[in-house]
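EI: anyone free to look at a 104-residue chain?
SC: sure, send it
EI:
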Amino acid sequence: MQHICRMFNDEIVTGLTVTAHDSLVGRKQRRNEVNDMSSKEVLDLALRLRPEERFIVIEGLIKSLDEPDKNLDEIWAEEAERRLKAYHEGRLKGIPMEQVFGKK
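SC: here you go
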């Protein structure tokens, strides 16, 4: 058996004693337990981790938010093309960079 307090298969596992069997069989049960936890409970558990372990959790959370969304990228690319076309056709006026950034 091994006492662990770190990210385990992309799940926060803290203060658990697991065997190899537990790590395979109990994975679904642990996932359900995490899903049943409130955000405050997850934060409280994460704050009990050592600083380097918290960094791993933070990095994983940030990466999960920074996933590229191909649909959103496509929508913005189409919008950019429409705006550029409207600008070239004189239907859209540009704003000087100095005005946008408040420089005179």
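EI: The chain has two domains: 2-65, 70-100.
SC: 👍
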